[in-house]
Amino acid sequence: MRLVVQGSSIQLPHLMHIHQLSNAKQGAQFMQIAEHAYYLPHQAITSEASASDAVKAFCASEKIDCAYVPETQTLKNIKLAVMDMDSTLINIECIDEIADMMNIKPQVAEITESAMRGEIEFKESLTRRVALLNGLEESALQRVIDERLQLNPGAQVWIDACKANGIKTLLVSGGFEFFANHVKAKLGLDYAESNTLEIIDGKLTGKVLGEIVDGQAKADFLVQKRDELGLTPNQVIAIGDGANDLIMMREALAGIAYHAKPIVQAQASYALNHVGLDGIAHLFSTI
């Protein structure tokens, strides 16, 4: 295992204290990955569970992301990254912002949050939310892109790292094709799968065309693309923030919870709460 720590608040005293807490071997030093990211090589790490618990507790108190990462998990060994879109690659939940155009954002956002926490099934939540959008002008979708949609911090750095290391990128979203295709083009992703809103005469009908992309569908797309590329589960990672991302995470070597709901953080391999998406590259980097 190597110990990866990252966060804008990291200073030398933090590293010294973490080094002490980790019971690192004598003479071992933190290696710098990026401006606010460091790791202790596996040769320096002890296997004491009490040490890792102490490190994690300290880092949490100081708003530092930390992770114990197996040596085999590196950018060179990953071949497919599967990613959620809303609140993961981008800064918004698109459906909530569409609803804001109709002055019903609170009602829709409440359903969104309940689904993200795993309190109601995603298919039911999406059906209920989309129904509320009946009659909205199609032009509102472009307004969301023009006025509100932004990439989350570090998104382009992360995707560039994927390209540099030959990692294929797949966006799988319970959101909508209109936005997924925009994000795919903007970031230069390899593949994208999402839902399609029914639009008739320039207006949303309140329905989704075809099968809804829910948590199981996300996992199915992961497996399908993995098999098409001739990869094994040990060559795939999955990134998300909501309960509907958990099934796909279980199909991957590692699941990364990005600024995620507690239920996702509890079940993911790693959680990033204080850094951007570039932190994923740092997790799997050995310089």
UniProtKB/TrEMBL annotation:
Cite the GO molecular-function annotations of the record: L-phosphoserine phosphatase activity; magnesium ion binding
Pathway, according to UniProt? Amino-acid biosynthesis; L-serine biosynthesis; L-serine from 3-phospho-D-glycerate: step 3/3
GO BP terms: L-serine biosynthetic process
One matching Pfam family: Hydrolase
EC number(s) recorded for this UniProt protein:
3.1.3.3
Q: Which cofactor does it need?
A: Mg(2+)
What is this protein's record name? Phosphoserine phosphatase
